[in-house]
Amino acid sequence: MNRHISRRSGAPVIILMTMNKLFGRISIGFVIFLLLVLVGFVGSVSVCVGLYVSEKRSIADTRSAEQLEDSLASFILKMKSEGFPDFVSNQSLIEQINNLAYLHEGRILICGSDFRVHYDTGFTYTGKYYISNAAMAAIKGKKTKHIDENKHFMELCIPLSEGPGDPSIGVIAIHYSLEPEFKLLSKKVNRYIAYCTASLVLLIVAALFVSIRVSKPIRNLSNAFVHLSDKDPLPVKGYREISEIADRTNQLRLTLSEIDQSRQAFVSNVSHELKTPMASMKVLADSLLSEEDAPVEMYREFLQDINSEIDRENAIISDLLLLVGMDRNNNKLSFKNTHINPLIEIVLNRITPMAATQSIEVVYENFRDVYADIDENKLIIALTNIFDNAVKYNRPGGYVHVTLNNDISNLYISVEDSGIGIPEESLPHLFERFYRVDKARSRSTGGNGLGLSISYEIIKAHLGEIKVYSRIDEGTTFLIRIPLKNTAKDTTYNA
Questions:
Q1: Which class for 113: exposed (0-12), middle (13-18), buried (19 or more C-beta within 10 A)?
Q2: Assign residue 83 a region: left if phi > 0, alpha if psi is -120 to 50, beta otherwise?
């Protein structure tokens, strides 16, 4: 049973896939052409049908029941005065009825209430019975007309009654040919068909022109995508939507080019940063191996240097793993409501010994107790990198001023130092990976150009922002804003 159901359920899927493949091979120009032709064809047919119906209605109106009834009014009065059906003995009345039938190029039958024909201008139905739908409706008091399109004649039945509301005592049935009218209608219909056909041909030509005109910019854009890797941008021409697509594609190309350049620079920097400690260790090891009777002190000194290079390599690898983890969205932040004031004190206690060696004063000022939804471990890493830079790139006898404050929605951390400052042209690149303002000094202080990048990503993961203001020889200020109630709580950070 299950196997039978699965086969049935798979049939619509196969049909859908087939339709998708079919429509995937149809160009938009062909679709536009087909729609215009279809609309034109339906419109032409509708016009022809409408004109045919209108012309056919006009045929019936040319000899309306009112006109014939007016002509027969005097005869009906005479028939009533003569008595029904005794009127047939009045030759003068019969002659007038025959003249009326001749005038209208038709035939008049006068029937009783039992549908028996008392007089027929064509003499074939006299004494016989004439029964039709129109005649039966007339017996009930309803004037009726019917057009036979196959035989091209009209049947008009008028009830005979003593007075309004009285029962019908008979029926006057008039038959007349509509052959001339239908011949004229046929000519008109042929003319309409010719007009519609010519219009449809013109519409096909116009639809072909429009479809080519509309699809040409799309086709050009599609061809341009083949050469998307070329340096020249896509031509921003054509309709507004095409221009927008080309413009946004050009913007995307620039973005992808920048990402590719950034990726290449990142790979180059990673290779360089990992290679440098290993090169140093290689030199130290070769130096030891070249000395056959090297003293123990030399071995100890070189091994300490090798150990430092290993620590430096581990630090680079740890920072890289942290950044890569955040980029791959697998670095889940554990948000919880945390008291921020003591957290900053923990970070400051870590940098105070290093600041003391250069007589740098560290001042911490907080205006109130601040609580916020944060990942404590990650925020400590971010603040440590920023506080550490404030000390490393400071001046002997300088200061680091840290303040904590908040408003109803956010907490604010300000880190101001009296250091050497940052050139204005370097500020936009400060949070890029492996970027160093002063590469020589960065290496001497042990920096690898990843600290501020990590801080930036962590604060961004908290839905916060970090700004930097600096002037050469006037110091640097970092301003950090983080929401107190984090909407990214218990979610994976999307870098």
A1: middle
A2: left
Which amino acid, 204? I
Minimal CA–CA distance to 186: which of 152, 156, 147? 152
Cis ω on the peptide bond leading into residue 423 (within 30° of 0)?
Answer: no
- pTM, full prediction: 0.47
Contact 82, 169 (CB under 8 A): no
Q: Identify the CA nearest to 319 among candidates 242, 381, 371.
A: 381
Angstrom distance (rounded) from CA 228 to CA 251: 12
Note whether 335 and 490 are within 8 A (CB).
Answer: yes
**Residue whose tokens read 């920023």:** 386
- What confidence tens digit (pLDDT) does each residue in 373-426 have? 998 888 888 898 899 889 988 989 999 999 999 999 999 999 999 988 888 888
By residue count, the chain amounts to: 495
CA distance 233 to 60: 70
Burial of 284 (0-12, 13-18, 19+ CB in 10 A): middle
Query: pLDDT per residue over 73-91, tens digit each?
Result: 566 666 666 666 666 777 7
What separation, in Å, do the N-terminal and C-terminal C-alpha atoms of the chain show?
49
Task: Report in angstroms the alpha-carbon separations of 358 from 54, 279, 351, 384, 443.
Answer: 105, 31, 12, 18, 18
Is the preceding peptide bond at 85 cis, omega within 30 degrees of 0? yes
128, two tokens? 């016989």
**Cα 152 to Cα 176: distance, rounded to the nearest angstrom:** 9
Partners of 406 in beta bridges: 411
